[in-house]
Structure formats: structure tokens, C-alpha cells
Batch of 2 targets.
Target 1
Amino acid sequence: GGPGGQAGFVEVQGDLGKVVVRGDIEGGDGVSSGSIIAYGKIAAVTVSGDLSGGAGVGSGRILSGFDPLRAGDMGSVAVLGRIEGGAGAFSGSIGSGGKLASLIVGRAGPLTDVLIGANGERSGTVESQGLLGSVKIFGNVVGGQGDYSASIRAVDRFSPTGEIAGDLGAVTITGQLRGQDGIGSGSLRADGNLKSLTVGSWNGGVGAASGSVQTGLGIVHPGASGAIKVLGTFQAHGFAGPDSASIVVGGNLSSLSIVGAADGATVRVGDALGVLSIRADASDLLVTARGQVKQGKTTDVAIGKIVIVGSVSDSDFLAGYRLDGAPVNPDAQIGAVVVTGGWAGSNLVAGIADTDGDGFGDADDAVIASAADSARIISRIASVVIGPKLPAGTAISGSAGVPTDHFGFVAEQIVKMKVGAFAFPLNSTPGQSFDQTTTAALGATGNDVTVREVA
């Protein structure tokens, strides 16, 4: 494409068969320059080189379903070089007005940036209206200054012929998922279900919700997520925007596994989180889950299991909390919790609200107020093991020199808890409480950590 509108431009006012480009597609300054557009379907696309945008709006773009009244499905897409946005909105992008069968970007080999955002809004993006099948990115996904740049999006489609959920298939990113300055840059979104996600490492950026995954918040059907695996670190950097390096799941999240450290990240689950596993330290981490869609007779497990092979600091694990952070479920429960290292300045809470906002574990903690509170279900933490090889008095700490804060392990019932070699004398009688004045195992920093059952 060049400076003129629709320069180097292919337009089909019906359906388009297979597209093979043995080289690059390059947008220019003109609107829709260097683009391929079909009003209907595109059978398949293979680009052996790069797809790159320019300053023109929609430059360097492949688009099916330009006519919103047609089924604009797109078949399998493979861009074996890079997809790179430009200054123009929607530049260097792929858009399907219906389903998109599958996507491959890059080639196996040394890790480089292969899905790249720029200044333009939604530059370097891939989006379907309806199902987006399996996605394989051989390299890094890197957002830009443009909002939602370098994003992968499956959105709900509404048309005269019916509604289609924006489900997203199995996604593999061999390198980084990295947000930048733009809102939602370097992100994944599925209005419906996300089958699974495996990513090499994960970093938030300055933009709000940059380096984020959002699934299950559409309206065609309730959405959930299968296993999410992070093979490296999961972190938001020093000047990260709100909800950068975040996971937001409208329904259930079956499991989240993080091989590296988790630092400054956020995980919010609208229903239940099955298993959280971190094989390194967790710091400044927020994890919330509301609870089961359908309660059992005496159970409502919001977080099934937590295993952290490392230490925990400045973090919150809250069961019974909505996506917006509001406490809503007094019946929420947590299963087994194992932390091999220490626990500092952090909270583990099930079904309890901090009514005064001054920290968990003190006298103002109360069972979450709700008309739906079941008389047969009590909030519960099944078991807690912290620092099994550490001296009991050093495994847990609050914060030294801050007299106004407080931290706690809080539920209506805590069945078992062991810190170092010390087992707390918990029993079936509700309302037990232990702090540093009664139990040396809780350390000696300001008497600001409490194991508390709220009757």
C-alpha cells in the first residue's frame, strides 16, 4: 500500500477462496491500503512473510464479513512472519466477521516479537465475531501505545440470523504475553469460554488491563476457562496500570499453574477456582473467587486447593468475593493450603468481611451479610500448612512498625492448621482465636496476625 486510499487493495464483494501470499503484506499511509477485504467469507489465508500496518486506518489488514448481514467466517490463518501494527487504527490486523477456524503466527525457533502492537488503536490485533479456534503464537505478544493493540479477541456476535458466543480455543504463546502503555494492550479476550492457555511468561504494562486475560464476561452464554499455565513469571512492573498482569474469569477457572514467581498480579474468578499452584514466591498477589454456581448440601468450595512452593508476602486470598471485589458469599470455602516457605503480611479468608476496612483478623470481622446465607453451610478452610521446615515462630509474620494494620486466617471454621512443627489446637467448637499473645507460632511482629474463627 501507498499514500492513496485503497492503494494495493483487494476487494471481493462476495466470498473469497484460499489466499496465498508468498511474501509480505504491507500497509501504507492510505486508508485500507495494502489490505484484503471480503464482504463474505474467506476460505483460508497463508502469508509466508509479514503482515504489517501503516499510518492509514485499516492498512495492512485482512478482513472477512465486511458486510455485517453476511456470514463472514474465515478459515485457517497462518502468518509465518510477524503481525505488526502501525499508527493507523486496525492497522496490521486480522478480523473475521464470523468464526475464525485457527491461527498460527511465526515459526518455531528463537523467541522474537511476532504479534506486535503500535500507536494505532487495535493495531496488530486478531479478532473474531464468534468462535476463534486454536491459536499458536511462536514468539512474543507485545502490546503498544494503542488501546487493545496486539490483542487476541473472540467476541460475541449478534446478527439477524442468531447469536454466536465468542469462544476461544486452546491458546499457546511460546514466549511472553506483555502489555505496554495502551489500555488492554498485549491481552486476550473471550466473551465465552477459553479452552486453555499456555504462555511462556507474562508481564503487565503501564496501560490499564494491559497484559491481561479476560474470559466469560459476554452475554450469549456463561463462560469459563480451562487450565491456564504460565511457564515463567507472572508479574506487573513498577508503574503498572490497574488490573495489568491480570486474569478475570466470569465463570469457573479449572486451574492456574505458575512455574516462576507471581508478583503484583491479580486473579479474579466469578465462580470457583479449582487449583492454584505457584512453584516460586508470591508477592503482592490478589486472588478472589465467589463460589459454586450450585452449592452442595454442606459445601460451597470457592478455591479448591492452593500450593505455593516458596514464600508469600503482601498477598490476599479471598473466597466469597465477587469480580468487583465485593464480599457476597458467606458460605464460601477453601480446601487444602500448603506454603513451603514463610507467610508475611498476607490474608487467607473464606466467607468473612472486614467490616471496618482495617485488616482481617481483628474483632470487626463478620460473616458476609447475604439473604442467600445457607443454614447448612459454614465457611471453612479445610487445612493450612505453612513453612513445614521453618521454626514455627519465624514462619508467619505481620508487618513490623505499622501499628494500624492487621492480617488473618479467618473463616467460620478452620479445620486444621500447622505452622512449622506446631499444630494449632483447633476443634469443632466455633469461635476459637489465636494471636501472638497466646501462640508463639505466630511470630512477634506487632501482634498483628490472628487465626480467627468467626462464630
Target 2
Amino acid sequence: RQRVLATRDFLLSLLAEVAKDPGGLMKAVAEAEAATVAAGRPDAPPSDVVVSFRESETAETIRFPVYAWETAPSVVSGQPQIRYRSGEVREIEVPWYHRPEVALAVPRPRGYLVLPGWHQIEERLRGHALRVEKLSAPVEIEVETMRVSNPKLASGAYQGLVRVEPQVSRQRERRRIPAGALWIPADQPDFEVAVQLLEPEAPDSLLSWGLLSSVFEQKEYIDPRVLEGHVATMLKDPKVAAEWEAAQKDEKLTADPRARYLWWYRRTPYWDETVGLLPYVRVLQAPRLETRAWH
């Protein structure tokens, strides 16, 4: 009961604060949305978009009223347990951290192109009511691709999902994007939501929540005996031979049979280049796309 009433009182106080200047709040929201749209227009000057924040190490000290307390051994844990004395209030000085800083920012794209067939991405785009169009014709375009590797999985699930923290590398390259791909333009008020969903380093990205973990899976392989023949041929190339000689200076590589296998497999024409490649790209220059409404 106390918690419900406290929540009610907090909401009433919040609404009363808003009611003092409702026009000001609406104006601030409109200005923020307009700024996001302007920054994402094809002719807008280059700018950055924030992917993640960290708390500043600088804090202010404030006096905070709390119930008086004492500690006593806990029967359950055997550790000291705090017990409050209801009705007896004392003020303590606590640090107040309220100045978040930018932890990671990247150049603002003009939009994202999502390859067809990734329903878990499509569902989240629809759920957030982002403006999305569909390519009606294939296009060859310069984009920034993102590859992820060395995933660190959380020790357990949270709300049915296993979070993942990968290493991320980015590269500009020319790619052919098929018809049916989804186009999320940057000149829309909620584009920052798309950034948080699709930038892999964002703490609430689809990748971070384990919804795209299949990109880490290697499905194709080459029989080691077959690979041996390819390696014998490749070593006749002085450049490859020099690369292999340099690679062998890494003791971890030379002591790990699978690492050696992958080192060579990646250099064959049969390596699956989509391993670790995210199924969407960043478009950094104003594109010319043939699109239609996404139903």
C-alpha cells in the first residue's frame, strides 16, 4: 500500500510540475525532434550520433533524508543486515552523479539498410513505429559494414535472453543490396531509436540482447585433408608463405589446431564471409534509392 501511494504521489507531483508550463515541454519536444530530423537530412552537414553514455566521475554532495538504521547479524546469510528505525529520520551526505558523458559516438549515417529475411529486426522496427521503406530495385552502393567477433556471453539468461558483448570492426566497402531490403532514413524524429537498436555497441541493441547471435555461428567447413592440398598450393605464393611465417610467431596460434585451421580456411575461396557480418549496413552518403512503402 505504501509503495502504491508513494508512486501515486510522485506521479501527481510530476504532473503538477508539467502543468506549470505545458507549452514549454511541448516546445522542447518539438525542437528536439526537429533537430534530429534536420541532422539526418541528406544535405545536412556531417555530425555524430551518440551510441552509449557513461556516468561522470564528478559528483556533487547533497544531504539526503533517510530513516535511522543499525546493523545486526542476519540469521539467513550470517552477514550484517541493515534494520531501519521507522519514524526516526536523519540526514546523510551522499554523492550525486547526474552528469552523463558520451562513451561512444559514431558518424551519423544517412540511414540503415536491413537485408531481407531478418524477422526479429523487422518486428522491432514495426514495434517502435519507425518510418521504414522497402527497396523496390537492387542497388550497388558504398556502405559501412559491421563485423562482430569474440562474443562474451552473459553467465545466465535475463528475461529469457542471453546478453552478448562482442568486438566490433567497421569497414567501408561497395555492396550490392537486393530488392526487398528495408531502408530506415535518418530524417525522422525517432531515428535515435534506430541507432540504439542497430549500432552493435549500444547497450540495448538487438545484438547486445542476443537477438542476432546466429551471426556468430559458422555453418560451412572444409575437410582438413582437402584443406591440406589447398595449403600446399597457397604456400607456393611467396606473399602467403611470408604471412604464415609471421603468423607462427604467435604461440597461441601455433598451439591451437583449430586456430591454425581457421587461419588457412579464411584464405580459401570457400570461407563464408557472412560469419560475424551484421545483416544491415550504415549508409554514410545521401543515397539514390528506389523505394516503396513498407506494409
